[in-house]
What we know:
Elements: H1 6-14, E1 17-22, E2 33-36, E3 38-40, E4 43-46, H2 55-63, E5 65-70, E6 73-81, H3 85-98, H4 106-110, H5 112-115, E7 119-123
Antiparallel strand pairs: 1-2, 1-5, 3-4, 4-7, 5-6, 6-7
Amino acid sequence: MNSWTSDQLSRIERTDELQIQPQRADGALRKPTTIWVIREGDEVFVRSYRGPDGRWLRTAQASHAGHISCDGVDTDVTFTEVRDPALNDRIDEAYRTKYARHSAYVPPMIAESARATTLKVSPAEPKS
C-alpha cells in the first residue's frame, strides 16, 4: 500500500476543501465534488455532509477508487470504510478544530449519519 508523502499530508492538512472524484462502474470519474478533508496522523479522511445519501459517497463505496485534488495534490486514491469508534472520535475532534470558524456546518459532519460515512483516503498503487 502506498503512503502519503509529508508534503502531500501538509498540503492536505492546510487546505479547507478538496475535489473528490470517485470512479464510476464504467471506469470514468464522477464530476468533482468539493468536500472537507481531515488529516489524522499520517492518514487522510473524508465524510459525506449529506450522510449516506451523498451521491459521491455511494459511488466511492461501490468502487473504492477515485481521484482527489487540492493545493497541488493531484492523485488517484483508494477509499476504505472506517468503522473504528475511537478513530471516529478523533476524526470528530479534528473536524471541530479545523473547521471551528464554520460552526454552523460542523454538527452535521460529526453526527452519527456522517460518522457512518467516514472513508480513509489512501494514494493508489501506480498503474503498470
